[in-house]
Amino acid sequence: xxxxxxxxFAAVIGILLLVLSAVVVKYRLKYGKGMGIAEDLDFEAAVxxxxxxxxxxxxxxxxxxxxxxxxxxxxxxxxxxxxxVVGRILHAWGMFQGQGGPxxxxxxxxxxxxxxxxxxxxxxxxxxFQAYG
Length: 133
Known about the structure:
Helix content: over 70%
Largest sheet: none
Distance between the termini: 25 Å
């Protein structure tokens, strides 16, 4: 059995991860830092935007894949995945625009991320309860 919807979202998140990684590498080369950050808020924001994606993406993609394999409606999986991707893009953009400080896009991005995780978690629980009572 394949999980084509989750596969597409994993690919998109993978591309986003590479973009954020490239931004971090740009700053690492600029400041000659193999580890840590320089006293540059943009560099710190880039590292945290990348790290934040790495923290949230694996579990969310795993949950989407399990939901897809368990027969949760493709429409739900699609919309939850879209919310997650949009949330991650907004969060990263808000991190860069706000130099790691408060920014509306960052706030909306994390709220969309959390909502996507909560919705897929509830869908998984409902799916299991429906199947096994």
